[in-house]
Amino acid sequence: MSISRKRPEADAADTEPTPGKGKEELHLPSAIRFSPEEEAALLSESNAEKSTANDLFKSAHYSQAISVYDRALASVPNYLEYDIAVLKSNIAACHLKLSDWKAAIDEATKSLEALDRLESPSPASKDVDDKREGSGGARSSDPNNRNDLDGQLHKPTAAEATKDDRGVVELADDEVNEAEALEKIEKDDRRKDDIRRIRAKALMRRAKARSEKGGWGDLQGALEDYQSLSPLSSILSPSDRKIVNTALRNLPAQIAVAKEKEMGEMMGKLKELGNGILKPFGLSTDSFKFEKDEKTGGYSIGMNG
């Protein structure tokens, strides 16, 4: 099946450029949808590229894998947040292998942001989904496109069931709808499990990259990521659980050391700046006394002598 790579039509005002690597990509509002046939074809193309990238990753060709994952992303409709999150997390894994900590943090963060959007769809996106459902349109693979069930499922009464001439009971329409509703619940539960699994992977990858990058801010961010992983421990592997528990024990002390170091460096730079300002007046920062408040970690300044 041949499919145009053109995005669905929209007014020029609805598009906005997103900075890329030497080129611009037009991102349309999430309310715009491909037809089910086009969407399926694009996903098939993306999955083929992803499979190739996975093989490259397994053979330790990480830079090439990143390029192919990027091609897979180019085929994914920009409202399918789950598929985007998976690919971004995979790219983060490649950057980890290449020890490119900043890039790994950025890609893992984009994966997590896609999952956040998936779990908190915008009103405009939900409105379009409702219209598609009401008109009998096909659903996307995005779990945002499924209607939630009402609180109570209706049970068909005896009067609503019918028999044919042979006395065989046929399912009433409401009973059929209930079966479909239960199937939706099961499918939704499976997708929620998938989302939690990808979230755990992206958090693990970002936490590792932040820990390796070091520095007060990144170590603090790593601690927050590992704390977010604690409620997901049931889906972590034993080795990952061990990493999380070890990090939660060790990171607070590492953060304190990094904070002290960076505060010392900052005070050194301030001292240099102060000496430059005070020199014309025959003074220096040695004319002043810096005292640290051990409770707050802050400093007070007073005159010597």
Molecular structure report:
With 305 residues, this protein is mainly α. 59% of the residues lie in helices and 7% in strands. The chain has eight helices and six strands. It has helices at 36-58, 62-75, 81-97, 101-119, 123-134, 173-213, 216-229, 238-278; strands spanning 16-19, 24-27, 162-163, 169-170, 288-292, 299-303. The strands form three sheets. Strands 1-2 form a two-stranded antiparallel ribbon. Strands 3-4 form a two-stranded antiparallel sheet. Helix 1 (36-58) runs antiparallel to helix 2 (62-75) and helix 2 (62-75) packs antiparallel against helix 3 (81-97). The longest helix is centred in the middle third of the chain and has 41 residues, at 173-213. The radius of gyration is 28 Å and the shape is elongated. Residues 4-31 and 128-164 have low confidence and may be disordered.
